[in-house]
Specification:
The complex is a heterodimer of chains A (486) and B (70). Chain A contains 21 helices and no strands. With 486 residues, chain A is mainly α. Chain B has helices at residues 2-20, 40-64. Chain B has one domain (9-64). The chains are: A mainly alpha (486), B mainly alpha (70). At the A-B interface, α5, α9, α10 and α12 of A face α1 and α2 of B. Chain B: This is DUF3311 domain-containing protein. Chain B: Keywords: Membrane, Transmembrane, Transmembrane helix. Chain B: The chain crosses the membrane at residues 7-28, 40-62.
Chain lengths: 486, 70
């Protein structure tokens, strides 16, 4: 049997296992919308921990983290910092979101915004932005899976087939089992990733340098600039710090993260998940080690694409057996698929609930809504697969732009949760100004002081909200529905 | 109790955040001393991830420790 066959065999066994776990997870509550979308609001600590971990920990993190360490050095700690700060947002927002969701039947961000500000179009807008952001994100996971397959099997499984295989599995269990399928597969995949990442990180530094300490000692002698800020690419503290803040605190506005708050069985569960969340970020440490190992290995012939450093180290340099390569491929696929499942699931719900239900599906029964959501999972996965085959280079650009816009929902969401006196007009104008400012800084001007453009945009957004609250006449209407509950 | 609790939790979050970005991380921006074989700045981030976890753990026990149903 050739080496590539062994790699393919291990990976297919892994895919089969994930499929079985995902399909068997189908619970009784899946025929109801709440069951399919939010696990009946009964998801406990263990599963929720792995779901929230998997969502942040995508193919991009698995390949991009070592890429950053290899190319820039110390600025890669940005990823450690922001991932470990994410639980603060879960701690603060989570319990309130879960309670409002339970009391008022919310399942999406759009539900909450539309109800609180009594504006269906506002909820729809949040939904449209969500879908526009989630589909390219899903495409990147599929493309990642295809590339990984192709590289690890030496072309035996081509790009189109690798991406297809991985996401047929994902679409199948999300279609059948909804959130419970995602939960159990994320648990299995999360444990695999932790195990594989630590094994690879320690094995690579041990094989090439004889240990982690020895590796850093050698880097300190020949290329010490990689080990402290500003790193090898001169990243300023201003950009580093603002990027951490935007990613850590704006990240919770991603619909696929935010909507998981609704699925928790209690606020206490969400608090407990956030306590343990920083431990999930330790998964990044071995991946950073692999990136650092690449600095000296590729010193003479730098890689054209830094995010291939993990693949090159494991496949070409460290001389592992095909069994290890098969495990590496499975671990990396786990990162892509566990995030992808959440993305496809969320995009389908947002599309059906926020965009289709208020327009073409008015008054549809619950059964019809669940059906439409399932088929949307397939439809959107297929669309994302098509996009991955076309491989438009502008995809990352669309993703980053959409993300910048999603962050602008922050004041609106905070208002709905904690500040019942915020008015619709203020938050809309704030979000509008913030979004326009973000787009201008991204495409036209450069961001002042070299900071992350998202920080300036959100500052402007908040300033506009405050100004509107202070100077505009309140509209003649009663207190909002959520306000009465406080 | 609630007010003090919220202030303390908020303070913990603020300190952990500032330790990982400017200006907190400035004081750790060096290679020596290495800890566990890691350059000091690398170790600094690993340390603060642990501090964040420990503080939240205490906050969780204090507020949610006994009751199972919030």
């Amino acid at each position: 049997m050739s080496d590539s066959m062994i790699v393919v065999g291990i990976t297919l066994a892994y895919l089969a296992m994930v499929l079985v776990v995902g399909l068997r997870a189908r619970g009784q509550s899946n025929s109801s919308l709440e069951g399919y979308v939010a696990g009946g609001r009964h998801v406990g600590v263990m599963i929720l921990f792995f779901i929230l971990g998997a969502e942040i920990f995508s193919a991009f993190a698995f390949l991009g983290t070592p890429g950053w360490a290899y190319q820039r050095g110390a600025p890669a700690f940005y990823i450690l910092a922001y991932l470990s700060l994410v639980p603060i947002t879960i701690w603060v927002l989570g319990p309130r979101v879960a309670r409002l969701g339970r009391e008022r039947g919310y399942l999406t961000q759009g539900d909450m915004i539309a109800d609180h500000y009594r504006s269906k179009p506002l909820g729809m807008l949040a939904g449209v932005i969500g879908v526009v952001a989630l589909v390219p994100y899903l495409t990147i996971q599929i493309a990642g899976a295809g590339l990984l397959f192709q590289a690890a099997t030496d072309g035996l499984v081509p790009f189109w087939l690798g991406g297809l295989l991985a996401f047929v599995v994902v679409a199948a269990y999300v279609f059948c089992s909804g959130l419970s399928g995602i939960g159990w597969t994320n648990l299995v995949q999360g444990i695999m990733m932790i195990f594989i990442a630590w094994f690879l990180g320690l094995a690579v530094s041990d094989r090439l340098y004889g240990g982690v300490g020895e590796m850093f000692a050698q880097i300190q002698q020949t290329a010490p600039e990689y080990l402290t800020m500003p790193g090898a690419t001169d990243m300023s503290w201003g950009y580093f710090s603002t990027a951490v803040l935007v990613s850590a605190f704006g990240g919770a506005m991603w619909p696929h993260l935010f909507m998981k708050f609704y699925s928790a069985d209690s606020g206490r569960t969400l608090r407990k998940v956030s306590v343990f969340y920083p431990l999930y970020a330790y998964l990044l440490v071995p991946l950073l080690l692999i990136g650092f190992a690449g600095i000296l290995t590729f010193a003479d012939a730098p890689l054209v694409r830094p995010d291939t450093v993990l693949l090159k180290m494991v496949l070409d340099v460290a001389n592992f057996s095909p069994w290890v390569i098969g495990l590496m491929l499975s671990g990396a696929l786990a990162a892509a698929m566990s995030t992808g499942a959440n993305l496809a699931h969320t995009a389908a719900i947002v599309l059906v609930r926020d965009v289709l239900t208020p327009t073409v599906m008015k008054g549809a029964s619950e059964k019809a809504t669940v059906g439409a959501t399932r088929w949307s999972v397939l439809g959107l996965s297929l669309a994302a697969y098509g996009l991955a085959l076309l491989n438009p280079g502008s995809l990352v650009m669309i993703l980053l732009t959409a993300y910048g816009l999603i962050v602008q929902l922050f004041p609106m969401v905070l208002g709905a949760l904690f500040l019942p006196r915020l008015r619709r007009a203020s938050v809309m104008l704030g979000a509008l100004v913030g979004s326009v400012a973000y787009l201008l800084m991204d495409f036209v001007w450069s961001s002042p002081l070299g900071w992350h453009a998202g920080v300036w945009a959100i500052l402007l957004n908040v300033l506009v909200v405050i100004a509107c609250q202070a100077f505009m006449q309140p509209a003649a209407r009663g207190p909002s529905l959520a306000g009465r509950h406080h | 109790m609630t007010k003090t609790y919220q202030c303390l939790v908020g303070l913990h979050f603020a300190i952990c955040t500032l330790a990982m970005i400017w200006p907190g991380a400035l004081i750790a921006n060096r290679i020596e001393p290495t800890v566990l074989g890691l350059p000091f700045l690398f170790f600094w981030y690993i340390l603060w991830m642990l501090v964040l976890f420990a503080g939240m753990w205490v906050a969780f026990i204090v507020r949610h420790g006994g009751d199972r149903h919030e």
